[in-house]
Design brief:
Strand order of the largest sheet: 2-3-4-5-6-8
Shape: globular
Largest sheet: 6 strands, antiparallel, barrel
Organism: Sphingobium lactosutens DS20
CATH architecture: Alpha-Beta Complex
Number of strands: 11
Protein name: Amidase
CATH topology: endopeptidase fold (from Nostoc punctiforme)
CATH class: Alpha Beta
Order of helices and strands: HHHEEEEEEEEEHEEHH
Helix content: 10-25%
Keywords: Signal
Structural class: alpha+beta
Distance between the termini: 10 Å
Strand content: 15-25%
InterPro entries: CHAP_dom (IPR007921), Papain-like_cys_pep_sf (IPR038765)
Number of domains: 1
Radius of gyration: 17 Å
Pfam families: CHAP
């Protein structure tokens, strides 16, 4: 049980870091988003919004092919970028991004929802593939960066960009066909096809409290290494 807790906590922590520097050994969100969207911006994800000024249109309405730029927040020190693959409605979109739920992992067509008071996509929650539900943390964003031509480009893994795995892929039509959430199957090797939950159920907005103890509830000023050290220390005590 403790081993499972450590594994789950590590996965949740990885999802919290977004574009945080895991090193050159794993695929980062920036080169993935740049390839898939065609928005040719560089540098840390937190700087994309300012870099786009005067080069790309920006706004607060989701559009297919647009890049959703996340602000730096807590352990997500370098921000994050994700690409919109489909707009489901005013509050729900599907995104494609890398290095979120698992270091270097690619998640395709997973759910992100707007939880902002004004409906302007300034606060979002993102699907967490390892737990098969919506992530517990609310993530602040800048908004959307629109490419000159809305087109989703294929991403071909490139060792020069770091190791990557295709951790989760959703059947986009099932979000509408089933009217709610889809639960992916965990894997460490291959593309995952999703399995629908019962018809009519809404996406979960909760997660395992044991994981939260080491992740979302941790003080913002604490480093990722300190949180992981706590996980290891807890394991030894038990």
């Amino acid at each position: 049980m403790i081993r499972n807790l450590v594994w789950a906590a590590a996965l949740m922590l990885s999802g919290m870091t977004g574009a945080q520097a895991w090193g050159a050994s794993v695929l980062q969100c920036v080169p993935y988003a740049r390839t898939v969207s065609g928005v040719d911006l560089y540098g840390d994800a937190l700087n994309w919004w300012d870099q786009a000024d005067g080069r790309f249109k920006r706004g607060h309405a989701p559009k297919k092919g647009a890049v959703l730029a996340f602000r730096a927040f807590g352990p997500m020190a370098l921000g994050h970028v994700a690409v919109v693959s489909r707009v489901l409605d005013d509050r729900r979109i599907l995104i494609r991004h890398a290095n979120w739920s698992v270091p270097g992992a690619i998640e395709e067509d997973v759910l992100a929802i707007d939880v902002s008071d004004q409906g302007d996509w300034s606060q979002v929650r993102v699907w967490h593939s390892p737990t098969g539900q919506m992530g517990a943390r609310t993530n602040p964003t800048f908004g959307f960066i629109y490419p000159a031509k809305a087109k989703l480009h294929d991403f071909t893994p490139d060792p020069a960009l770091g190791a990557s795995i295709r951790f989760a892929r959703m059947d986009m039509d099932r979000w509408n066909r089933e009217g709610a959430s889809v639960r992916p199957v965990r894997t460490a090797q291959a593309t995952v096809e999703a399995k629908p939950e019962r018809r009519g159920r809404a996406p979960h907005l909760r997660t395992d409290p044991a994981i939260l103890h080491f992740a979302d509830n941790a003080p913002v000023e604490r480093s990722l290494s300190a949180i992981i050290a706590d996980v290891k220390r807890e394991t030894m005590l038990n």
